[in-house]
Amino acid sequence: MKLVYFDVYGRAEPIRMLLNHAKVEFEDFRIGFAEWPALKAGDNPVLEFEQVPVLVLDNGKVLSQTKAIMRYLGLQYGYLPTDAYEAYLVDSYLDAFNDLMHPFALARWEKDEEKKKEILANWLANTFPKFLTAFEKRLESQGHSKFLVGEKLTIADFSFSSLISVIVYNELSETSATLRETYETFPRLKEYAHNMKEIFNDYLESRPKRPM
């Protein structure tokens, strides 16, 4: 199969982590931002929504939309819970991650430097700790910090591990030190990050180093 995305971590990174953990061979096709306009111009059958990532399967079918791709791969390789409530928890985590990161993404692409600082400051002071508090409470209720849901890896773990490995535990990220200071005030989440680092260490050490 072939994964198509930019040469950054971004939305494709949890997909890369899942395929790597499942030991699935795939082509990690990375495109430059300068190539993007030409790639999406015209009627490109691979870009159904003129967006990436997309995953081209060996049978020629093309999968679009990050969460849908993750659910497909989770079902294929055993990373989706069969219990209805646990499946709900996984999906609610995925939605929460989107809500958490939306203002951060807005700040990243904001052209006005003062407005960018304002958005980021509000996110750091309010949004980031609010969501971490909710995640911490879930882990406390669950009784362990091995995984986000249940007793095994789910697509929620790939998504959150990708997120924290990029913005919290990434020395090339300009926000890493500040976010780590906040993140590590949550003991369950800190323990969770340590557990995930042990599971994904080989991949994290070998992947291309990028700020985002």
From TrEMBL:
Residues 1-81 form the GST N-terminal domain. GO terms for biological process: glutathione metabolic process. CDD domains: GST_C_Sigma_like, GST_N_Sigma_like. The keyword Ligase does not apply. Pfam families: GST_C_3, GST_N. The keyword Transport does not apply. InterPro entries: Glutathione-S-Trfase_C-like, Glutathione-S-Trfase_C_sf, Glutathione_S-Trfase, Glutathione_S-Trfase_N, GST_C, GST_superfamily, Thioredoxin-like_sf. Keywords: Transferase. GO terms for molecular function: glutathione transferase activity. Residues 83-212 form the GST C-terminal domain. PROSITE patterns: GST_CTER, GST_NTER. Gene3D superfamilies: 1.20.1050.10, Glutaredoxin. SUPFAM superfamilies: GST C-terminal domain-like, Thioredoxin-like. This is Glutathione s-transferase. The gene is Contig12205.g13038.
